[in-house]
Amino acid sequence: MEEVLTTYTGSFPLPHSRDNVRRVLRDVAGIGIDWPNYPQLINFIDMFLAPLARSGGLEVVGGRFVLTGELRMPNVDEAVQPIMESLEEWRELSGGGRGLRACVTGPFTLSSFTFKRPGTTNIMDSALGDREAVHFMARYVNAVLRRLEELGVNYVNVDEPIIGTMVGARRNLFNYSDDEVVQVVDEAYAGVGVRLRGIHVCGRLNPKVFGILGRLERVNLLDNEYADSPENVGYLSLDLIGDKRLAVGVVSSRRAEVEDAGSITRLAGKIMDKVGRERVFALKPDCGFGSLRTETGSVEDAYEVSLAKLRALKVAANAINGM
Predict the structure, then answer these.
(1) What are phi and psi of 7, to 5 degrees?
(2) CA angle, corner 188, sides to 182 and 189, nearest 5?
(3) Coil, strand, or helix at residue 156?
């Protein structure tokens, strides 16, 4: 039976700098994380929308991205520059190994942070309801994923936290059909030949979300939250997830308390009881550590907590693999 691996979503509570990128990669390599993600030390929205704002059709007004005209495809290398920086550092540090995992913010989530007028943060005033804008974002994400494939990345993950909000148990925001949601995500992955292709949807979900994710044709890994949303375990079934494997969030990315390996192993065991151990590809935190804060408010303290959580995660994975 294949080993259960370890990975993480991407962000850490450190400011962006080349030194901090190197520091994170060195630290997670020391812990033995199997699939490190590039250290996403730039906001996951700004990283991908800022190049669009420089290309035209989008402007930054009052700290928000606002549609001003027809969106234009940017130079994709601007968006992947932080990832290229991490790849260089990782190859020097590790000699290659499995490589780096790369997360890319998805078309629905990017659209939900793109507003049709200044002065609002209401999702109903966002481009999420603009099908043309959403499909443009899908083509943009596709260009980013293809570029990452060219750079030798062999594990990519599209981050779509907004799907957990827009897909309701009875109806979807902006009257999206379930088929439309599937179509947009698959459009983002069209022609991408990377071996591991995931989608991250965090928060408390509903069975319909799992059913939609299970229908995705071009995704083979589902990445969801179970530590801070244990209700999600109850919704899992082989019928809903189809042929997908799971990267399971079994460590909180919000709470500063460090889990013990036993509690992580027990939660992972509950998931395995639902879908079988062979379907669990990796253990991971629920989401990124970028917003993790401690009582002291210290960035350094928060970073040390995030590393402690990853150490516990690795111990839990080793315990499962030793069973």
Answers:
(1) -155, -175
(2) 90
(3) strand
- How far is 287 from 141, CA to CA, in rounded Å? 20
Which tokens go with 142?
């596709």
Query: What is the DSSP pairing of strand 280-285 with strand 245-251?
Result: parallel
Indicate the SS3 state at residue 300: helix
Q: Which tens digit of pLDDT belongs to each residue from 104-151?
A: 999 999 999 999 999 999 999 999 999 999 999 999 999 999 999 999
Region of 143 on the Ramachandran plot (φ > 0 left; ψ -120 to 50 alpha; else beta): alpha
pLDDT digits (tens, 9 = 90+) for 165-223: 999 999 999 999 999 999 999 999 999 999 999 999 999 999 999 999 999 999 999 99
Distance CA 133, CA 161 (A): 18
pTM of the model: 0.96
- Measured from the Cβ of residue 20, the count of other Cβ atoms closer than 10 Å reads 15
Calpha distance 133→3 (Å, rounded): 41
Q: Is 203 left (phi over 0), alpha (psi -120 to 50) or beta?
A: left
Using the predicted structure, report yes or no on whether residue 97 has a pLDDT greater than 70.
Answer: no
Predicted pLDDT of residue 170:
92
Tell me the backbone φ, ψ of residue 26, rounded to 5 degrees. -65, -40
Are 127 and 67 within 8 A, CB to CB?
Answer: yes
